[in-house]
Design brief:
Layout: H1 2-10, H2 13-32, H3 43-56, H4 58-61, H5 65-90, H6 93-96, H7 105-118, H8 122-125, H9 132-142, H10 147-172, H11 176-180, H12 182-206
């Protein structure tokens, strides 16, 4: 029962920060941006809430917004590198892997469709889209994308994603209405960011 309660904690941004502080926050961002098991973790909303925490309850995170952004960018970049080498190691075998409790082939296929449309830029744009954010670096490794090119997209994407979400959270967190309705805002962010995934998945099924 405690294990499932912990998993529930990992899907709630506020609980992640309250439960594990900065270290758990960095670990979750690392996992969500490069490990196949991390696709269910709340990346966008977590970065947003962590930025908000810096303005409303600085002691909870323990660092200022600048340091937070730098650490989160580092974690996101390293996470993508781990995903790249994981995909590189598995290669074509990844596309014939059977579905399991964690791995769903449709997630990889939806990312492949997105990648086919945007090329390497999917690593930048995909930072703002759940599931694609997790599987894009894995796919890049599987298709042997040049590592230097991968790193350029990786760093640019991480800087844009983390800086945007954390800064928005930091400044909106100063507004009382936002503080009182953060749960609804997080839910709204999840719905909005998941729409492109659903649309891509539908196109992939129709193809």
């Amino acid at each position: 029962m405690e294990f499932w309660e912990f998993l529930k904690t990992l899907t709630d941004p506020s609980s992640i920060i309250s439960y594990g502080g900065l270290w758990l926050l960095l670990i979750v961002i690392f996992a969500e941006t490069g490990l196949m098991i991390g696709f269910f973790l709340p990346g966008d909303s977590l970065v947003f809430v962590s930025g908000m925490a810096c303005s409303t309850n600085p002691g909870l995170v323990g660092v200022n917004i600048i340091v937070l952004i730098i650490l989160l960018i580092f974690s996101a970049v390293v996470g993508n590198i781990a995903g790249y080498y994981f995909g590189k190691k598995l290669g074509p075998a990844l596309f014939i892997k059977e579905d399991s409790l964690i791995f769903k082939k449709r997630y990889l296929n939806a990312t492949k469709v997105f990648y086919s449309k945007y090329g390497g830029k999917a690593l930048v744009l995909g930072r703002f889209i759940p599931i694609v954010r997790t599987f894009a670096p894995i796919l890049a490794g599987a298709i042997n994308l040049d590592f230097k090119r991968f790193m350029a997209y990786n760093i640019i994407g991480a800087v844009l994603w983390i800086t945007t979400m954390a800064t928005i959270g930091f400044y909106l967190g100063k507004i009382k209405w936002v503080q009182e309705n953060v749960g609804w805002l997080v839910l709204f962010m999840i719905v909005v960011t998941i729409i492109p995934v659903v649309q891509t998945w539908k196109k992939e099924r129709a193809a």
